[in-house]
Amino acid sequence: MNQEQRNILYRIAICLVLAAGAFLAPGPRWLEIALFALAYLVAGADVLWKALRNIVRGDIFDEHFLMSVATIGAGILGEYPEAVAVMLFYQVGELFQDIAVERSRRSIASLMDIRPDHANIENADGSLTAVKPEDVPAGSIIVVRPGEKIPLDGTVESGHASLDTSALTGESMPREVGENDLVASGCLDMTGLLRIRTSGTYGESTVAKILRLVENAETGKAKTEKFITRFAKTYTPLVTAAAVLLATVPPLLAGGAWTTWIERALIFLVISCPCALVVSVPLSFFAGIGGASRHGILVKGSHYLEMLARLKTVVFDKTGTLTKGDFSVTAVYPQGIAPEELLALAATAEIHSDHPVALSLRKAYGKPVDPSRTSETSNFAGEGIRAVVAGKTVYAGNEKLMKRAGVHPETHQNGLEEGTIVQVAVDGRYMGHIVISDSVKEESAQAVGLLRKAGIEHIVMLTGDRPEVARKVAGSLGITEYHARLLPAEKVEYVTAAAKRQRPGRTLAFVGDGINDAPVLKTADVGIAMGAAGSQAAIEAADVVLLDDNPLKVALGVKISRATLAIVKQNIVLAIGIKLAMLVLGAAGVAGMWEAVFADVGVTVMAVLNALRALRIK
Ligand code: ADP
Ligand code: MG
Q1: Does the annotation mark 317 as catalytic?
Q2: Where are the beta strands (DSSP E) in 290-428?
Q3: pTM of the predicted protein model
């Protein structure tokens, strides 16, 4: 419990003691009234204050206004215990709701363990100074000792270590890193001393990006949520008008007793307080977001939870999404140079790229590459890379890139064309090609199956790779629609057209790793990114980030979103249903002030408890 919640609790306790005193004290009548008045103020001063403040702002009709009018009215009629009870139970409801919000927030924040507390900067003389991660300039050398978190993104200058990446990815397999490897902030160094050259400031780091994302998780409001806010705005003036009519019409027209009808009008006001609805709908969404985050699924707002629930089309990117993106070299076909030289050339040209193909070529080469030999790197998304290595212009990529380089590759027809082919050209001369092959993630086939079972009608795979590779991957996963040899812009075109073809109210998701496909993530109704360490663009462009790169989480996300929306609907029906029934009973004089208070708190508590179920969907 935090300080604010403890304060509410103290106020509830003091109010109870004072009210009990007023009931039990055999003192004079004025003392009893004074004690009730005190109890009332202890419980409700902030409600009165908020009502007043909103009236001054011209924003008259809200729950605080309803509570204030109803309780002051009850006081004037001499119903002191009732007035105190309304305020008291209102605070109980508030406390409840506060704790619930906090619990949801905490489960999102457990991801927050990734926040580093310090960085060790290496000074010119080799000594270390511990500073805040925010104070480390880009390009500094920092030292990470075993047991410490990597505070900023960068490249390993020297040292070897295995990293625990589970905070970022949920994956427990340690990752081995050594010289020239890219490392992401938020990973835990478990074994060795690492000297790292930082690639940017803390604000640009993976950790800072994830933290920002989590903090803003509440901003994208769902349609249902916006509707409830609008509903409350028109609803409150309406019930206030109804209460005024209820207080005045029967006495004026039918000769009823003024006190009876004013009291009924006040009861009517208490009952009509839309708390349960106003509170529980955003809370349900928030709990749903919290529940998803427990499974490493970060949803950037309730709006996207709502969109996930209505998914009918899921478009997957191939490399790094359905496949591991961890290619191994299966064959090298050099032309005029040694195989080892061709591999060295490709690895050196790819030194500044973080594309899966580039990472794999560097790994296959295995030897450290001097990054200063490579300059003027340009990335052609969906094609490959051009770089100047020791004064020579090197192209490494697919056939499209070779056209750009002005060479005609001669690919051998020897049964190995199943893999992805990296062609290499130097200064306008074709140097040969490297065949690399990727493997499908273990979970991919099951992910496709689960999505089908969940009623997703269209499952599509897009790739910039060759049709032969695409056919094989799609076939092994049971995906019938696939499109190969696409540039990122063509993926955007496909997604735009596919989204247009859908019936209204249905949504399309694109799932990608963010490398070369950030624009596609932005285009889709729901952009889902494989957000594991490395692909920063993805975390920014996407609406949903899967921290552990597991395609199964797409289906889990859909399940959580649907369950959350079901809870939202239950809460709306519950709140409105009970309110309507009580309003009728109150107006008819069957339900009194006490019933009204209990109904209000009861519905709120029930709705809050129901909302919290969204935290535990599995
Ligand atoms: P996918 O659509 O499967 O995610 P991309 O659009 O990222 O793949 O890339 C499409 C193709 O472009 C790759 O299969 C590869 O042939 C080529 N390519 C892209 N980037 C590189 C690179 N850095 N080095 C070599 N080839 C690359
Ligand atoms: Mg890709």
Answers
A1: yes
A2: 297-299, 311-317, 328-334, 374-380, 384-389, 392-397, 420-426
A3: 0.78
